[in-house]
Amino acid sequence: MMMSYRTFCQVLIWSGVQKNSNYISHTLRTACKSLSSSTSETTSKRQKLVILGTGWGSYSVLKSVSKKLYDVIVVSPRNHFLFTPLLASTTVGTLEFRSVIEPVRNTVFRQSDHFHLSRGMKVDFDAKLLHCQSVLDTNISYTVRYDKLVIGVGARSNTFGVPGVSEFACFLKEVEDARMIRQKIISNFELAVQPTISGEERERLLHTVIVGGGPTGVEFGAELYDFVQQDVARLYKHQEKDVRVTLVESNKILSAFDKRLQAYAEKKIGQRERFNLIRSSVTEVKSNSVTLRDGTVVPCGLVVWSTGLAPRPFTQALDVPKNDHGQILTDQYLKVLDDPQQCVYALGDCADVKHVPLPCTAQVAEKQGRYLASVLNTTDQSMTEPFKFQSMGMLAYIGQYQGLSDTPEVKLRGFSSWLLWRSAYLTRLGSWRLRMQVPMDWLKTLIYGRDISRF
């Protein structure tokens, strides 16, 4: 029986494979071993860098540190970076919330489980362990080993022990805070047009009290004033005359700015109808009013509290040297003082450089993050220079397309400063996606007005 040509070829091929099977198997085993050895060697060379927080300092480290040198693990109760200078704009709908946040996972981790949506609870400095608790299920607790640890947990709003602040006032630190303020503003306007609401109650609902005359308080007041002038006048025209805003500040507003710029801001605020500036302090906050230092009770429908910073519980619980404000003390290389392993760093609002106090600003935290990343990327860290901060200046928006620019080179105010304010922040946004979304939001607001949907 004759064998077909196709069958003959198959027999030849099979014979060749059989003869060379040992060689092929040996080659594959050798290649796999080589690859496994190479991978293990690379992994063993990488140190485990754990970053606590996703604020300005921590996020700056995350973006700039070399992923070839470190396995980077981030532990944070929020999974996004927040561009805080534009947060006030989201409270009235000038910008949308997602236009000022950047998902942390977009930085791309080596493994998907290298980001933990958890809180740091405590640090075991001797064992190099970070104790964590999940924010999604508080029953889940675990530890993360580190070779180097960066603490950048930021700070919380300072209530100064004033009764009622935590229960009845709104802060302006996170997206959740801005969302709460926006909901409250819209709810108060809608409630004010209900037929059974008295004139006195309507005036209370439409009165907003801002406590604190720093950049956050002033810029929120500016955004609220623009909202009233541009949108309330159109959508709630019969209630516009009842809208009032009171800014309570015990000292000078925008105290860190040049005195001439302070005076300009005060003058502009003083010229605005139904916008009052009170030199006092708040001693109590209730659900429907605030009490001033002299005993005056001010009825209001919304209180926004922006009076300074206080350490978070995690920072308070750390057994490390701290300053009078409860901030972690570091040396000029941002290393935590008295760390026995000399491998823990702290930066941003939760930390302070000993003998070199720095302002608690995004600018400082971001520069510290870049500096620390460069230190970590250097193989010989003994050659690094200490951290030095040089301010690029400050910007603030005061409403009606007017801004303040306090830089070492020039002091600007008015419309030109507003253009600089917008341009500078647009270039500093964390990604090109945000650089596209923010101008689109500005354009939509200019053409169609702010979105006042309640959801």
Care to describe what's here?
There is one protein chain. Residues 1-21, 23-28 and 30-42 have low confidence and may be disordered. A hairpin with a 2-residue loop joins strand 21 and strand 22. It is globular and about 70 Å long. The termini are far apart. The chain has a seven-stranded mixed β-sheet with strand order 7-6-5-2-1-8-19. A four-stranded parallel β-sheet has the order 12-11-10-16. The chain has a three-stranded antiparallel β-sheet with strand order 13-14-15. It has 455 residues and is of the alpha/beta class. The protein is built from twelve helices and 23 strands.
Number of helices: 12
* Span of the ends, CA to CA: 83 Å
Strand portion, in percent?
A: 15-25%
Task: Note the overall shape.
Answer: globular
**Average pLDDT, to the nearest integer?**
90
Sketch the major β-sheet: 7 strands, mixed
Helix content range: 25-40%
Task: List unreliable stretches of 5+ residues.
Answer: 1-21, 23-28, 30-42
Identify the strand order in the major beta sheet.
Answer: 7-6-5-2-1-8-19
Q: What Rg do the Cα atoms give?
A: 28 Å
